[in-house]
Design a protein that fits this description.
Blueprint (H helix, E strand, L loop, with lengths): L21 H22 L7 E5 L5 H10 L4 E6 L11 E5 L11 E7 L8 H10 L1 E13 L6 E3 L3 H20 L10 H7 L3 E8 L2 E3 L3 H12 L1 H6 L4 H10 L6 E3 L2 E8 L5
Parallel strand pairs: 1-2, 1-4, 2-3, 4-5
Antiparallel strand pairs: 5-10, 6-9, 7-10, 8-9
Helix pairs in contact: 1-6, 4-8
Length: 271
């Protein structure tokens, strides 16, 4: 969920926390992603006293939950290029910066990076950096969507609606790829984590359906507003975008999210 500040957009990031729409987009992401991430972290042993780093913290919804789980005695560091939406707290440190160029604090019991590495050409370098920040036995959690899986529409109001959604996805994903995003990286995360030296590596793959006006449909609508200029450049018209946004609010539409691959590994306890 890592995004850029206004005037600072660089290759590797698709969205901008400084826009009027960003707060909505980040809230929708939290609502979609948080339940699965919370479950996986709980199963990984998250406990009071842990030090955790949340990379690409976005709106800070996961950060806030983590701060409650690790209290008392634990600490959460939230990292984002533009952390303006992340709430503060007595056991939360907020760091502004690009994970590619930041040195993370060491001896973390967990480092979490959601929707970050798929956007970064230097993703394997960042995996190695995050592993170095872990204490022996610490957990790295990397979550990214596999956007090459495009069987998303469970029920469409009309063939026209289907065509508009497909055209939107084509334009948005092409924009991401032009900035260095790898839409299929999530499938290769286990291999990259094993190469980095992590052990007990495993992936959880999940998705769910949402009706128009909820969940992933609201996120797609928000993304269409944030990246309107790029979608127009890709061949969509303003009338098509207006119609698309209406379709995404139609309760007759049922869409799956992209497949989310959450890959978990541990730093070895011995060298």
């Amino acid at each position: 969920m890592s995004t850029t500040t206004a005037g600072e957009q660089t290759a590797g990031y698709m969205f901008d926390n400084a826009t009027d729409e960003a707060a909505h987009q980040l809230r929708f992401l939290g609502e979609i992603l948080d339940p699965s991430t919370r479950r996986i972290l709980t199963e990984a042993g998250l406990a009071p006293g842990w030090n955790v780093t949340d990379v690409g913290a976005g709106a800070g919804t996961l950060t806030t939950w983590l701060s409650d789980q690790v209290a008392p005695g634990g600490h959460v560091t939230a990292v984002d290029l533009d952390p303006r939406h992340i709430p503060t707290g007595p056991n939360i440190t907020v760091r502004a910066g690009d994970i590619r160029h930041l040195k993370l604090d060491g001896s973390q019991q967990a480092v979490v990076a959601r929707l970050v590495l798929m956007h970064l050409p230097e993703r394997e370098q960042v995996v190695a950096q995050m592993m170095e920040a872990l204490a022996p036995g610490g957990v790295l959690v990397v979550a990214d969507w596999d956007c090459t899986w495009r069987d998303l529409i469970r029920h469409s109001p009309s063939p026209r609606a289907t065509k508009l959604i497909e055209k939107f996805h084509d334009g948005l994903l092409a924009f991401g790829q032009s900035r260095g995003a790898d839409m299929g990286w999530a499938k290769r995360a286990p291999e990259a984590m094993l190469r980095a030296g992590l052990v007990d590596v495993e992936s959880y793959i999940d998705s769910r359906s949402w009706r128009g006006g909820t969940g992933i449909c609201l996120l797609h609508r928000s993304n269409s507003l944030q990246r309107e200029a790029e979608l127009l450049a890709a061949g969509m018209t303003r009338d098509e975008l207006t119609e698309l946004r209406q379709v995404l609010m139609d309760p007759d539409l049922v869409m799956s999210g992209y497949l989310m691959h959450t890959t978990v590994g541990r730093r070895p306890t011995t060298a």
